[in-house]
């Protein structure tokens, strides 16, 4: 049995958490701008152009959240982050949301008190080598110098994999994607290892991508997703369900082009609830009825965002793979909107 004093303490804690959570949403509305932490520059995911305009897969999600909360996808301040600063900026409140190729792990969830709001890209760690080396497998890289980012999950995975396979590891530690690319192209290492999606983005930016290959092995699971602080319950729900709205929209065939017509004509209850035609779900998370509609309109549904930024018809050239809808053999699956 829980005593009255304990119940009182739990209630007080719950009130404080709820208050802190509500304050995040209130602060964003008051300043009229979402502060979103992103990669400092990774082609296809988050990168500014010569005029400072940010584009990419992660950028599009930030804009969808801004559209849901502030009714305007342009109301975002993009804050470049690196491996050393990304979680600190979030915990210190310098950013409201982190959308930066960050892997959901036990220690980050539990020890850092972070809340991963879902998975927006199912990834895995790969290796890129120069074609001229004639290497066809990671198993041939024993004693070869390998560039890897210091303090990343990639570094730990690399050590685990080489140890498990009785291979001699020779790492060249780098501080960032940019340094990794530079040292790899300069010949300081024979291979560069990071998330396979990051390797595809890096390779696409080379002047001679045809001279570099990504080896077939994937040595880890890297579920990447948006991150908020653990105490930000309501704000976490806003971010989580915005992601689910984009995923569900693709499943139901709701696109940025047909959404207005579906608002008027769809008789499907799930679509009606998603688009705010019936059962005002937004009120439960502090938003209005049309929050999800605006999020989808910002850059399209999940499939549209994927295709436009990193899909097979872009220089990044990524196939959907695990990031296909569950109905198409992938893992993308949104809980019901009801």
UniProtKB/TrEMBL annotation:
<dbReference type="InterPro" id="IPR001638">
    <property type="entry name" value="Solute-binding_3/MltF_N"/>
</dbReference>
<comment type="similarity">
    <text>Belongs to the bacterial solute-binding protein 3 family.</text>
</comment>
<keyword id="KW-0732">Signal</keyword>
<feature type="signal peptide">
    <location>
        <begin position="1"/>
        <end position="20"/>
    </location>
</feature>
<protein>
    <submittedName>
        <fullName>Amino acid ABC transporter substrate-binding protein</fullName>
    </submittedName>
</protein>
<dbReference type="InterPro" id="IPR051455">
    <property type="entry name" value="Bact_solute-bind_prot3"/>
</dbReference>
<dbReference type="Pfam" id="PF00497">
    <property type="entry name" value="SBP_bac_3"/>
</dbReference>
<keyword id="KW-0813">Transport</keyword>
<feature type="domain" description="Solute-binding protein family 3/N-terminal">
    <location>
        <begin position="33"/>
        <end position="262"/>
    </location>
</feature>
